[in-house]
Amino acid sequence: MKQRKTSFSRAIVAAALALAGVAAHAAEPVLMPGAIVREGNNPLSAPNQFKKAPPWRIGFSIWGFGNTWMTQMVHETDAEAAKHKEIGKIIFADANSKPAKQIADIEDMIAQKVDAIIVAPVSYTALTPVIKKAVAAGIPVIVHSTEIETDAYTTEIQGEALYFGEVGGKFLVDTLHGKGNIWVLRGQAGIAADTMRYEGLRKALAGSNIKIASEQYGDWSYNKGKQVCESLMLSNPNPDGIWSSGGDMSRACIEVFKEFGKPVPPITGEGNNGFMRAWKDSGANATAAVFPSEQGAAGIRAAVALLSGESLHKHYVLRPAPITKANFAQFYRPDLNDNYWAPSALSAADLKKYYGSK
Q: Which of 3, 153, 263, 346 has its CA at 20 to 30 Å from residue 251's CA atom?
């Protein structure tokens, strides 16, 4: 009986500890919908490690305005920052897709002794020394939107570019029954997000008989994407499918097929309203990866949490289900213009202000 009581007591203690763990996990700051703690080694920062009295100055560095997604990401970030009176100033820097400029921008933020730095990296490798320098100076560094080589940063919130690429690749493998020739529309050469999305595509195609007939960079831009698709239509027509690294390029490609009077082959895109409008109007067989522009706002939330003395895990990831014909109506906004990206945390007033149809 004594042994049974002891075992029962231990079970009570174990259950209490488990519940405490659940409660602690539940109390963790919510950085954005769908963000989960990445599996594997994923330590927490120490409580009060970065706590500082406000007002705070926060550095915010982006790789560049390659397309309207980045513009919306900045709008989302500004809207979130405005909710926190503890933030005295956001020091914004646009790297214009140049690693050297982003390094110089972050060096300047370190020299200004900002309280936190939020980075959307332009390069997978080039920023490692400057991020280590910022952390060594006691500045928490939050990375978002694209992966980076080093893990010296404080925390990251990632839409997982590898997963993005796989979503489209798997769609084409399934739709084409594992065989055929495809066009591949990549983003900007040298940008980490492009490299990782492409690796995700190659991972999805491995073991299939799908061949990449042509591979071109469209810079995630509607105009460049249209030029690329027009050129491909003349030099390498009749693809069995199209994998695209971005929604603006996908929209441009659908319009090129329409102009040439040809049916659109199975195509992948992104949660861009313009792409979804073209998808709907053309009746194409398509899917869209979801890459929320709210990641910038999540960076602000992470900075506020750390500077308030809260603990965060090092790695948070987003692996949202893609947009398909079945859930299309949940994402497409016919009342907004083509520059809107779904989903968004912006208020109804801000959405109308920035993306109201004209």
A: 346
